[in-house]
């Protein structure tokens, strides 16, 4: 397997694994205090300082953060966070359980991608923060020019400036600001700094920048990627950018072109489509870490177990491109959903399901989201052998999801995306979860980005939130310091390793044939 850095393990987490799935303690002891602080703790503590109260720190304070541990204790004093908790949280590696990252070679080659527009500093704002800009009132003409390849990067600040004060303090805005602070040394985006931001963007976007950002700066062992361009991404860095197998097109539609055509199977009957689904699992089941569906953007996740004989005729109508009623469409989707879920269960793959808040703007039917958690309990009850991972804390209905995780053994919760949707809600969710449901079913971080740079900012926000949540549990007397220190490794990386069977997946992916 070709590696970008021959002297570095193929996965950031390779050096952190043991037979028990935890951190190799001998290896941890070999990491010096200086290396730790210059890696996660330096970048992390600076980001932590840089986002306290939404006010960026000065260069001298960031230098102090990079120089030694004193800055971490300063963070603790400023943020009600316990110094020992802050230090451990910023030193501990994360496993990132949800991204949409495109391949590094696509970024470097300028390969066309439907979700990547201009290859300049505006790209950092193109995912999520772009929605805040629209909601803040940015007109379509200004929006299109700002993200256009045809606009000079130096001129883009003029288009952004009227709306930047309104969005820079949201979670989306803070992730971008923190990434710019850590990658480009820019405390505040402005007319005076935009040229430096662009110059540093170009300097950063060089071969190996994914590993530098994810591993060296964000201290992420590995990412799990739901690649949006195809059902499964054959990554050039398979043990770093581990992949989900998308199942949404297996049942929603279904997607005859995207899922059927690559198999070469002529689809006429429902049995033929079952063979298509089988093909994807046979080809990629052993390489995937999970299966993923974002079908909750189109409907509730209330899938009924509909037998094949009840949808045979409906499927034939679909093949013939005849219109289906809403009831027929739901029945067909429900049947195919459970067929795909059973295949995932047979392959020991967790089923990741979007819940809660929608990406984008001006289209979310909030009333429907209210039912996601209740429907999740029905899924867990109908398939007790299937491990479900409910994503994004079902925001804003996260209290209900706490009840799901507490009651059902096969319900896991992934906090991915939540730290930048609402950082304070995510912090409160973590506090409540740890005194409500078993801690071994919680996953605390997924950046959920297409461009890699904001993942760094999101990880810093997540570390801040984790440190604050744990500190407040101690301060308020719910848990002891020893209790929360014992929780840090599990919720940041050990749970993910165990839930997704990553040791075995890495062993297989180290020898994958497509690289």
Written overview of the protein:
By secondary structure, the chain is of the alpha/beta class. Among the domains are: 120-204; 222-458 and 489-509, Metal-dependent hydrolases (TIM Barrel, Alpha-Beta Barrel), CATH 3.20.20. 50% of the residues lie in helices and 7% in strands. The chain is built from 26 helices and 8 strands. The protein has helices at 25-30, 33-51, 59-67, 70-79, 83-91, 104-109, 129-135, 140-146, 156-160, 164-167, 171-184, 194-204, 209-217, 248-251, 256-260, 270-284, 312-319, 326-346, 366-369, 372-382, 398-407, 418-421, 423-434, 453-475, 481-499, 502-509; strands spanning 94-99, 220-225, 241-246, 290-293, 351-354, 388-391, 411-414, 442-443. An 8-stranded parallel sheet has the order 1-2-3-4-5-6-7-8. α21 links the parallel β6 and β7. α16 runs parallel beside α18, α20 runs parallel beside α21 (398-407) and α23 (423-434) crosses α24 (453-475). It is globular and about 65 Å long. The termini are close together. Residues 1-11 and 13-78 have low confidence and may be disordered.
* CATH topology tier name of one domain: TIM Barrel
Helix content: 40-55%
Q: Radius of gyration, rounded?
A: 23 Å
| Helix/strand class | alpha/beta
Q: Detail the poorly predicted runs.
A: 1-11, 13-78
Major beta sheet summary: 8 strands, parallel
Strand adjacency order, main sheet: 1-2-3-4-5-6-7-8
Oligomer: single chain
| Overall body shape | globular
Report the end-to-end length measured between terminal Cα atoms: 6 Å
Strand content: 5-15%
Instruction: State the CATH class of one domain.
Output: Alpha Beta
How many β strands by DSSP? 8
Average of per-residue pLDDT values: 87
- For the record, the CATH architecture of one domain stands as Alpha-Beta Barrel
How many helical stretches?
26
Look at the structure and name the CATH superfamily of one domain: Metal-dependent hydrolases
